[in-house]
Every structure is written in structure tokens, then in C-alpha cells.
């Protein structure tokens, strides 16, 4: 890996993640050794600025690390991706006081942050939320509501919570699809704040079973005004900031596609099929797919900034579809041995499917791409 600084994903770290991925897929819990290795690696602070104790890495470097981790332990990779997506939001939208309070906790103490945005019954675009924040008589905020599918929630030290504010002016949702709604805000909330309840058991998902993805209840949680990260149109900008920077879940899909391809190679080696022409053709196909997906991710940060958000939605769809296709090709090649429950390819395939459902899921990406394309069409003179 060509990364800034001295960091390298060493063999011991990789082995911890690999073993942990297998264990977590069986137990459905976050693997303690993998999480501990992640916290100790310093990677949670990789996108924190050096002023606040981090490494100051950009999205290109972060994508590279996230891809590498995803090849070994995709659950840990999505935890790291979502964590970094919060870090960049604090860096961009936080006040100096907020940065001083939250970022050194991440960079120096290895604290992990989770995004609590999705709700039972709310759609992927997050335009209608039932979690509300109201000001109380002291000027602080009271947050009330429930969130679900929050990655890392069972082990996180703090949360970024998306809430609906009381409507301050005449607002109507735009007719076209958006990511986020009107009068919403993001708050930073400690996991041990009074009124925060996290069921200890994660959701029993098919894939990403080691990601601690679960639910959280906010029962009249009091949050100081200083812990509101942003509100109004800044919230919409904050939601799409990772896409604007080129930080992408596509990196996880590339790592998964690489892992599936490596599984096929291992199988061919064990069975003495390396010289078999049919295998070589299948391997070539997967190689093309993995490299194209990686190129789509690299191009996000290397290419121009003006249409990066559009390209990020395209890359999310194309890379997640590619990783699913590669898994399908490899499963076909493995035959019935790959159909055994314990075979790695089954975990990898289920993890690959999960990325498609993660925000923004494929159907929302397609709507957002369509909206951007139609608004950029030259008007008929
Ligand atoms: C592994 C995993 C990790 C996650 N981590 C987090 C997290 O950390 N934080 C968080 O807040 N959320 C998280 N989520 C939730 C995720 O962000 C989704 O937004 C959420 O699951 C809702 O998406 P949905 O597609 O189910 O919802 P819906 O929008 O309700 O869509 C449901 C289905 O309806 C259909 N549909 C809906 N609208 C359309 C349309 N316009 N066109 C075509 N079909 C449509 C599609 O088939 C779609 O799959 C996670 C989800 C997963 C699976």
C-alpha cells in the first residue's frame, strides 16, 4: 500500500482481523480482538487533523486502508468507514470547541463513533424522521426517539444523531429525491449520557454480522447547545460530505471482491487447477472486475471535484454490484464445495450484499443520480 507516514497493515494485524471475521460471522457479535486491534492501530484517528492529534489523512488514503481491511474483515471495515465519515463532518462543521472536545478522544484514546440516523419505518432518504429535538427552558435540547441499523452502536463511545427540529419556517420537502430533509440537525451524544439505551445484542443480520449494527433509544436525552454539530441546510451538506470528499463505501466492496477472487485462487491452488484454462478464464474475469471497481474508487479522489458527488453515487452502485457479481462468479467456480455453510465465500457474499443496502442504498443512489442528471441538462432555448 502506498500510504502517507509509516503505517502498514502488518501480518499480525491482518491475521487478527481474518480470524475475527470468521468468529464474528458465527456469533453475530463484534469480535473483541479485532476491535481492540483497530483501536490500538491508531486508524480511528487517521482522518483527524494533526492539530487534534490525528494523522491528517485524506479520503484517498483512507479508502486504500478501508479496502485493505475489508478484504480481511468487512465488518470492521464498515465500522471504520462510518467512523471516518463522522470525523470529517466534525472537522468541517465543528466549532473549535467541538473539535477540541471530540477529536482528541478519537485520535488519542481510540474512541469509536456510530451514526444513528435510520429509523424503523423511515425510508432510506431520511426525509421523514420521528426522532425529535426540542429546546427546554434552560436552552438545552431534549432528544426523543429510536434509531435502528446503526453500525457499531453496541460498542461505540459516542453517536452522531440525526433529528428533526421543530419547523422554524414554511418548509416543504422538495419534490425531487434528496438525501436528508428540511429542518434537521446533527447532534453529538455520549453513549453513556442519561436516557441513552442500547440493547446489548446487535441485529441478527445475514451479513456484516461482526459490525455491532443495532438499535438505540433516546429517552428525553438532554444535550447542550454546544453539542449541536449543524442544522438546516448545513445538515444536508454534512450528510453528503463523505461523497463530496470521495470517501466511499465502494472501498469496502472492492476489498470484498478482492477477497472473493483470492478465495477462488486458493481453491484452484488446493485442487491443482491453476493450469486449467477454464479456471484461468474465470480468474481473468474476476481480475478485470476487481481492477475496474478499484479504478472507480481511485478516480473519485483523483478526478475533478465539481461532479464528485454524482460520481460517488455511481461508484457506490457499480462497486457494490461488481462485488456481488464477483462473488457469484466465484461461487459458480467453487461448485458444491462452496455451498457448504462454513465456506468463506458464503460470508463474503452476504457481506457484499449488505453494502448494497447501506446508505445511500442502490435505489436511492439511482434516484439521486437521475435528479442530478436532469438538473444538469441544458435547457431548451
Ligand atoms: C449492514 C448495514 C449497516 C447499516 N449501517 C447504518 C448506520 O450506521 N447508520 C444508519 O443510520 N443506518 C444504517 N443502515 C441503514 C441504511 O442506511 C438504510 O438507509 C436503511 O436500511 C433504509 O434503507 P431501505 O433501502 O431499507 O429503505 P427504504 O427506502 O424503505 O426501501 C426499502 C425497499 O423499497 C424499495 N424502494 C424504496 N424506494 C424506492 C425507489 N425510489 N425506487 C425503487 N425501489 C424503491 C427498494 O426495494 C428498497 O430496497 C445500515 C444498513 C445495513 C444493511
Give your account of this protein's structure.
This protein is of the alpha+beta class and 381 residues long. Helices cover 50% and strands 13% of the residues. It has helices at 11-27, 32-41, 59-72, 74-93, 96-109, 233-245, 250-270, 277-302, 308-334, 344-357, 362-375; strands at 113-116, 132-135, 141-150, 158-164, 184-190, 196-197, 214-223, 228-231. The protein is globular and about 75 Å long. Strands 1-4-5-8 form a four-stranded mixed sheet, covered by helices on one side. The chain has a four-stranded antiparallel sheet with strand order 2-3-7-6, with no helix packed on it. It has eleven helices and eight strands. The protein has three domains: 11-111, Butyryl-Coa Dehydrogenase, subunit A, domain 1 (Orthogonal Bundle), CATH 1.10.540.10; 114-239, Butyryl-CoA Dehydrogenase, subunit A, domain 2, CATH 2.40.110; 248-375, Butyryl-CoA Dehydrogenase, subunit A, domain 3. Strand 2 and strand 3 form a beta hairpin. 48% of the residues are buried. It binds flavin-adenine dinucleotide. The site of flavin-adenine dinucleotide has 19 residues, from strand 3, helix 10 and helix 11.
What is the element layout, followed by pairings?
Elements: H1 11-27, H2 32-41, H3 59-72, H4 74-93, H5 96-109, E1 113-116, E2 132-135, E3 141-150, E4 158-164, E5 184-190, E6 196-197, E7 214-223, E8 228-231, H6 233-245, H7 250-270, H8 277-302, H9 308-334, H10 344-357, H11 362-375
Parallel strand pairs: 1-4
Antiparallel strand pairs: 2-3, 3-7, 4-5, 5-8, 6-7
Helix pairs in contact: 1-2, 3-4, 3-7, 4-6, 6-9, 7-8, 7-9, 7-10, 8-9, 9-10, 9-11
Bound molecules: flavin-adenine dinucleotide (FAD).
Flavin-adenine dinucleotide is lined by residues 82, 115, 117-118, 123-124, 149-151, 205, 208, 213, 354, 357-359, 361, 363, 367.
